[in-house]
Amino acid sequence: MARFIERHPAWALIVIIAVAVLLWLVFAIWPPGLEAAIGRKRVFLNAVLNGITLGGLYFLVASGFTLIFGLMRNVNLAHGSLYLFGGYIGYAVSTWTGSWILSFIVAFIAVALVGVILQLAVFRRMEGQDLRQTMVTIGLSIVFADLMLWVFGGDFYQVQTPAWLIGPVQLPLLTAIKSSGEPVYLQYPLVRLVIFLASVVIGIAMWLALNRTRIGMIVRAGVDDRDILAATGVRIQFVFVLVFALGAGLAGIAGVVGGTFQSLSPGEDTRFLLASLVVVIVGGMGSIPGAALGAVIIGLAEQLGSVYIPTYAIVVTFLIMVLVLAVRPQGLLARR
Amino acid sequence: MLKGSLGLIALSSLLLSGTAFAQEKIKVGVTATLEGTYTVLGEDGMRGHQTALNVLGKKIGDKELEFVVASTDATPDSAVRAVRKLIEQDKVQILLSPLSGDEGIAVKNFAKTHPELTFVNAASGAQETTYVDPAPNFFRYNMDGAQWQVGLGKYAYETKGYRKIATVGEDYSFIYTQVFGLVLEFCGAGGQVTNRQWVPLGTKDFASVIAALPDDVDAIYLGLGGADAVNFLNQYQQAGGKAHLMGGSIMIDQTILSSKGSAKNALVGTIAASGQADTWEDPGWQKFVKAYQDSFPESKRFPSPSLLATNYYGSTMALILALRQVNGDLSNNQAKLKDALAKIEIDAPNGKIKLDSNRQAIGTNFVTEVVDDGKGALFSKVVKVIPNVNQTLGYDPAVFAKIGLPSRTVPECKKY
């Protein structure tokens, strides 16, 4: 941090001012002039929170994607299918048992198993052949999409939100003061907050596992140099399977999350594949903090865009991607 | 050896298709949105099409109809690609296409490049398709989005007492047309439309859109369809939304009312207008519902046909009946068929339908209210039936032309 300020004083100043403005926008009561110019504070706050919570969902999908890529240099374009499959499993479990929590566990295990099978049956046979892997995973994603369409049809599925999560909560953020002097606080859907917290917890747990445990050390060593790691006697194929299972399982969990606050239907697989591609391109391929940063940036861009420039909202995310590719092609937080 | 046998297979399949041709088949290309946001709509449209074939049969005199289906995703380029493929590769002679608004405008324009073929609109409902520069070989047996909203504005203003409303709609031609019809009538009655929000087709996260909804309105009109509508309702429920709702024709429709999950319950009591009402007691409608239910096992269909099924049924029916009138004669650039299609009046399940000089349907419209049948299934209950709705919505054509074409901001909220 200190080094960054020393090396780029101008950038640091801009960042500090931007953060200060953002904090003021979030906590201050907006003067009437500002409300007239860019709309009510409630809308702005909601868009920011929605962006961050949507970022949480994107992070869940993209972190598995980036983990697999970081370790195995394997662009798994069937990742979106794993997401959708997890969502369907979660739906089936939650309607069958009525338990929302259980649906996460089952989805994680089931999709992780699919990941293990994919790694053992497909990727192990074509290690190091990028183009072949890419083509095969595209093919697999099409096959999976049709299989799921066959089984589940084109209907929209929603994972049932448990009753205690439905409805809004009051956040200690002022949106306005009524003429009577009574403060108005922000109402926000509880389920989104819970899901966001869960993704933060998962993110921190992953970071700890990667940086503080032995297996994490092995994975990081593998990211840096697979061959040397294998030469030291680590069973690298076993690590690969483990990481693939974890990445796939995370996509499965994300599917349940997505099915809870959005919906599941054919086509969601490619949408989330695209989203996670954009996220990891912005954040940096193979970096977990990069995936988190990229996810929040893309989530915020989508939500703020949909409120303030609805016509061009779709373009904004891709503009960000283009900008990052032009200025810092390796991604914002990737190591060189 | 392999090459040789492949060649043999190719040759024999050529011969087979040759014999098929000798049996005098009439090839019809059908498109439906079988992928993307509107997948469910496309699937049910095809069920309506199949129901029509079950009821009417495929025989045209001594010829037989053969259908080739192509999938689209509600974007205009996907529809043109599908239609082009059907014409150029599958050599279809007649098209039953497309399903969605923007697709309709694109296919109508494309139809002009093939004046020898016949295009029967399957379900699309943008006004521009038949109102602006219509193609002489493009026939539409369903009403457009504005016609499908007739009655709703007055009912909301007079019976429900709504004075100020806001709208949320998908950003494309069909929803523009729906909002056009609503605004014209609601503002004409004296109401105010304070805010019109447009979201891209395929939006998943509506949370910010929901937050931006105004509080000081009596009701919020939803012009959404397919996955978008379900996502909106789900997030609306999570955000604790309580406003009165009004719905467009594909919002209050079995595609949404029978979606899985509890989000749809927010719709009970919602008023809407459409080219059909699920609980209409007309015997023709009831017969159609029965035929639809009998054609598919219960898990593979909706409890009652959606608007798309009804439209596909109507357009398939018009085509088959017209073909029978001319005994399948497609000579002279299908002139006889086109003539018959332009003149035919069909007894569609949702009321009598005839075409105007632009080959656009004049039909019956329904104002509805969503009810729970007591077993958790939702249906649209008929409140009012309005016969003979034409494309200018009863306005003098000269006055109607001055309003302008449906868009994000047209029409203005005033009495025309």
Key traits:
heterodimer, A: 336 residues, mainly alpha, ABC transporter involved in vitamin B12 uptake, BtuC, two-stranded antiparallel sheet, 14 helices, B: 416 residues, alpha/beta, Rossmann fold, 2 domains, nine-stranded mixed β-sheet, six-stranded mixed β-sheet, 40% helix, globular
Task: Write structural notes for this entry.
The complex is a heterodimer of chains A (336) and B (416). Chain A is mainly α and 336 residues long. Helices cover 73% and strands 5% of the residues of chain A. In chain A, helix 5 runs parallel beside helix 7 and helix 5 packs across helix 12. The longest helix of chain A is centred in the first third of the chain and has 32 residues. Chain A is globular, with a radius of gyration of 21 Å. The mean pLDDT of chain A is 87. Chain B has 416 residues and is α/β, with parallel strands linked by helices. Chain B folds into two domains: 220 residues, Response regulator (Rossmann fold); 174 residues, Rossmann fold (3-Layer(aba) Sandwich), CATH 3.40.50. Helices cover 40% and strands 21% of the residues of chain B. In chain B, the strands form two sheets. In chain B, strands 7, 8, 9, 10, 11, 12, 13, 14 and 15 form a nine-stranded mixed sheet that branches. A six-stranded mixed sheet of chain B has the order 2-3-1-4-5-6, sandwiched between helices. The longest helix of chain B is centred in the N-terminal third of the chain and has 21 residues. Chains A and B meet through helix 4, strand 2, helix 8 and helix 13 of A and helix 2, strand 8, helix 8 and helix 9 of B.
